[in-house]
Amino acid sequence: MYDFAHGQSDSIEGITHSICTLEFEVHRPLYDWCIRELEIFAPQQIEFARLNITYTVMSKRKLLELVKNNYVSGWDDPRMPTISGLRRRGYTPESIRNFADIVGVAKRENVIDVGLLEFCIREDLNKRANRVMGVINPLSLLSPVSLKEWLKK
User: Fold this and answer.
1) Is 153 helix (H, G, I), strand (E, B) or coil?
2) DSSP per residue over 46-57, as a string?
3) What values do phi and psi take at 70, rounded to 5?
4) pTM here?
């Protein structure tokens, strides 16, 4: 039923490009056949590999379980690998876009090191963040004259 409804739903909604993960690649012939036989608007279905990041849970099913069981405060919890979670963690839109540009779209499964995502935010913040320094517990410094007097004691 999914294969029968998927193409019709995309056509009715005016979807021009149906973007799916690789597990739907084997479904494309049926998707295309249903659309062709019904003579309806034909979206282009494109498959790509999932984005996998080291040490990061990316499965929607597993992330939903974290939200439903209140292990996290919601989809925008800073610990979540969602766009809103990354934004709450301080990732800028530009750093997320840069990460996506570097990773690109692939047809084969691979795992991206989380360090690349962290590099992208550091690179962006290095350009835009003001650096300041503060001394929490300042020490009084002696002038060279008073230092000589202090050393004599």
Assistant:
1) coil
2) EEEPPPEETT--
3) 60, 30
4) 0.69
52 in Cβ contact with 111 (< 8 Å) = yes
21-57 tens-digit pLDDT? 888 889 889 999 999 999 999 999 889 998 899 999 9
User: Which helix H or strand E contains 18, and what residues bound it?
Assistant: strand 17-21
**82: CB partners within 8 A, 6+ apart:** 63, 75, 76
Closest CA to 117 of 61, 58, 70, 65: 58
Residues 142 and 149: their CA atoms lie apart, in Å, by 10
How many whole angstroms separate alpha carbon 55 and alpha carbon 49?
Answer: 18
Collapsed DSSP state (helix, strand, coil) of residue 111: strand
* Cα 17 from Cα 28, distance rounded (Å): 13
Which residues have CB under 8 Å from 86's CB, separation 6+? 96
Cα separations (Å) of 16 from 10, 25, 38, 53, 108?
A: 8, 17, 17, 29, 24
Which tokens go with 135?
Answer: 């001394």
Q: Which of 38, 46, 30 is nearest to 12 (CA)?
A: 38
Residues 6+ apart with CB under 8 A from 34: 3, 4, 7, 8
